[in-house]
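Standup notes, protein team

Yesterday: finished cleaning the Nocardia aurantia set.
Today: HTH-type transcriptional activator RhaR structure.
Blockers: none.

Input for HTH-type transcriptional activator RhaR:
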Amino acid sequence: MAEVTRVVRHQRGVPVHDYHADPVTPPVTVMRAAPGAFPTVRPHIHDFPVLWYRRDPGVVYVIAAGAVVDAGAAAAVDRGAGVFFDPAALGGEARMPWPAWRAHPLLFPFLHGRPGGLLRLDIPPDRLDFWDATVAAIETEVRRRDEGYRQAATAYLTLLLVDLARLAADVVGELRRSGEPLLAAVFEVIDRQFAQPLSLRDVGRAVGLTPGHLATVVRRRTGRTVLEWIAERRMTEARRLLADSDLSVAEVARRVGIADPGYFTRLFRRGHGMTPRQFRGGQGSRARSEPDI
């Protein structure tokens, strides 16, 4: 099993896992649980999307991003298959941190807010063969790594997420009716301005809140500060530039709003356990840990 996630921080003592795709790590990974060997049931949090599928009894669990996951509530899905993926592979709004996924139709279900972080959806019997075949196709592409495998695996993932969105149509409608317009506005500001100098006060001014009030609201609803989300958006873009371009580290730093390349390197190493050059060289897979559900 490829090691694709790692603990990047703790939130009130609960470990938070992230999926750091790099030039070596695939954008999507399938993990299969052996009978009686269900992954750890310790409480944990994902900053990326996770699905857990089992043909018998025909269910898929949607693991909420940013929520404390009670995996014990899903113990019946042992012998299933977990689908872990880097949302940035889907492009567009998916490159933004999870509170902004409300603008992305395929990621919106991962903000469901159900207790224990788990949304159970029943898969119609006539769709089970599709789910089996699509999960297996992702697995095959990632294992073989033939030319274009990243694009092929992402295409199969997209098909799976389209079917998931249809299964979750009622949940998504409910979410849209009770959406968080303030959080949406905050992350629109971050996405527009992360490549420039950007402070808590700047974001507050743009959304019409005092810095203190904004800081309290964002931390209460997401578990992280505005500055942490700005840094996360910058690091997401930095990873993309390092993987997809030959730009110098200094130029990457400048393009994500950090004028000092040395400071950028320190921030990157603190968040990823390696320097930007090591990341670009494909050493990212050495620092991973086995993913939780």
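Follow-up from PR in the comments: The chain has a mean pLDDT of 84.
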